[in-house]
Amino acid sequence: MSSTKSGPSLLTLQPYNPKGKRETYRIAILGDEGVGKTALVQRYLNGVFSETYNPTMEDWHISHPVMDGRICTLEILDTGGNEAYSTPLLESWIRSVDGLLLVYSVTRRLPFTKTRTWHRAILQASSASGRGRGGGAEVMMRRPAVVLVGSRADRVWEREVSAEEGRALARALEMKHVECSAAIQEGHAPVADAFRAVVRMMQQQRAEAHRARLLRY
Ligand SMILES: Nc1nc2c(ncn2[C@@H]2O[C@H](COP(=O)(O)OP(=O)(O)O)[C@@H](O)[C@H]2O)c(=O)[nH]1
Ligand SMILES: [Mg+2]
């Protein structure tokens, strides 16, 4: 006689959502000044693109992406990328989010090279003990989900960083990689793919943390 299991299997990765509440995730957009962080956010949220450059200080946005037929809440912190940022501010941003889009421009070599420095800062901030979001031990040890985003892919004649270099760096640093352009309408430029990829990674991390907790008890 076959038996039917009730409840989710421990081995099935489902987003942790104990009371059927809407899942909420928080991400920050990091990367050098002028690489296209704000343009990505504006394309994703409002479907618009502006040629005008307005430096960002620190802007919060909210969106409600649909993942697997369910609406979730995504809080987005758009940062300025100014090198004068104090380390404590950068660390507090990194510790307050579940995931990050680390952005470089495919048209500029230097910001691409500096993604390694940003990545080191992310690792340092997220491994500092006792100060993780939520305070739980498993939260302290977790690395945020990171997607490496090569922006301005429409500027093919200005390209300085190949797609393969981007993919190789992402592989080496255990990140996902997406190339996109905020200047081109969705359908041709997968800006939303970058956001969906980080939400998917955050869902998986949360499900894994939940499973680890269940296995401990
Ligand atoms: N052609 C093109 N220009 C872009 C793209 N993304 C940003 N820009 C331009 O690059 C400049 C800096 O972009 P912005 O998003 O403000 O950079 P941030 O400092 O990283 O937030 C602006 O003039 C944008 O219009 C893109 O995908 N394609
Ligand atoms: Mg900006």
TrEMBL record:
Gene Ontology molecular function: any one: GTPase activity
Gene3D superfamilies: P-loop containing nucleotide triphosphate hydrolases (3.40.50.300)
An annotated GO BP: signal transduction
Keyword GTP-binding: yes
Name of a matching Pfam family: Ras
InterPro entries per record: P-loop_NTPase, Small_GTPase, Small_GTPase_Ras-type
Protein name: P-loop containing nucleoside triphosphate hydrolase protein
Annotated source species: Chaetomium fimeti
